[in-house]
UniProtKB/TrEMBL annotation:
Reaction equation(s) it catalyzes: chlorophyllide a + oxidized 2[4Fe-4S]-[ferredoxin] + 2 ADP + 2 phosphate = protochlorophyllide a + reduced 2[4Fe-4S]-[ferredoxin] + 2 ATP + 2 H2O
Species of the source: Rhodoblastus sphagnicola
Top-rank EC class of the record's enzyme: oxidoreductase
Function: Component of the dark-operative protochlorophyllide reductase (DPOR) that uses Mg-ATP and reduced ferredoxin to reduce ring D of protochlorophyllide (Pchlide) to form chlorophyllide a (Chlide). This reaction is light-independent. The NB-protein (BchN-BchB) is the catalytic component of the complex.
Cofactor(s) essential for the protein: [4Fe-4S] cluster
Pathway(s) per entry: Porphyrin-containing compound metabolism; bacteriochlorophyll biosynthesis (light-independent)
Domain of life according to the entry: Bacteria
SUPFAM superfamilies, alphabetized: Helical backbone' metal receptor
Similarity field: Belongs to the BchN/ChlN family.
Gene Ontology MF terms: 4 iron, 4 sulfur cluster binding; ATP binding; metal ion binding; oxidoreductase activity, acting on iron-sulfur proteins as donors; oxidoreductase activity, acting on the CH-CH group of donors, iron-sulfur protein as acceptor
Cofactor note: Binds 1 [4Fe-4S] cluster per heterodimer. The cluster is bound at the heterodimer interface by residues from both subunits.
Protein name: Light-independent protochlorophyllide reductase subunit N
Amino acid sequence: MNEAVPLRPSAPGALLVHHERGQREVFCGLAGIVWLHRKIQDAFFLVVGSRTCAHLLQSAAGVMIFAEPRFATAILEERDLAGIADINDELDGVVSRLLERRPDIKLLFLVGSCPSEVIKIDLVRAAYRLNRAHAPRARVVSYSGSGIETTFTEGEDACLAALAPDLPAEPATAAPSLLVVGALADVVEDQFAATFREIGIDARFLPARRADAMPAVGPNTKFILAQPFLAETARALELRGARRISAAYPLGCEGTTLWLKAAADAFDVPAARFDAAVAPGRARAEKSLARYKAQLSGKTIFFFPDSQLEIPLARFLARELDMQPIDVSTPYLHQQLLAEELALLPTETRLNEGSDVDRQLDRCRAARPDLTVCGLGLANPLESEGLATKWAIELLFTPIQGYDQAGDLAELFTRPLTRRSRLEV
């Protein structure tokens, strides 16, 4: 099914949203473990899945055989699938041995996969049972990282949404507080925390770096999303009484300023104090972006649906680097979470929700963009056809948010073009 409807029917020149349904090319939610296990330093992610799941994680994370990562796969064997073994007893034994060998684990995630969901393993009940056995030494939480009808960034959303119901309750008499939601690299989190202090706001972050430091939440909590793909997490926090601050996302100088300003306005920070606090960061970002603008200005870019970062990235590239996003596809379009971003997207951009990879490949080949952002499975075929590509997943593994990363973000888009120019004879 393919159809186009106006994004804002009453607005003149409104963007059309083309809804596409067809084959997809994208990683599953298990990929989120690669950055989440680095963030929560005493957590362990136990995937209940197949050898394919294990190979995916090993490949995505580049784990060496002598390393001791904080994720693993409890592999479902033929005897499990045939019902010869009791899967619950098997899982209990794996968890008990794991926690005995790794006393540093304080938070254990049971992560569902395609195989575990197909054979209907109830990991929610398993987590409840294991919690009773191992609390308070270790807490057990479950979520789904299955690739059935999901994209790889939804793994983070499912993980944080699973944490939300059990976050500590903020006292009813507490002063209004700010919660920044979304996994950020530690260096980015530290930069944002320092900037918020300059503005006059004491910010907390979800997820925290340690299991026993997860932030409290309640009716006096105002939260702002650092990532656009956290729809379920936002709903879970709102059920706890927290209120979302609507904002653009902190990609590039403009996006970071708008994001910080939305939080400052929610806490009635005087404009003079805000401007003074962000001025040094804005100046650094503008200077770093100027280095790349000449190389990217006027270049066309095509986004395949992959990470749900496509719309904020297109806004950043169009408004700050003068690129032309000719076709922007995103797996899911959460209009409320992206309202501020959509208002800044060039109206001539073709905007697509969903995936029909064959149609998108046809449009990409016809357009011959200067740069194509896509998944690993499409990159090599498109490169062989003479198109420069950027791996979408790299934008999740790399710190790209905030003023001090604005230049690094721009450089990610210049690298494929620089490489291609060097290879040309």
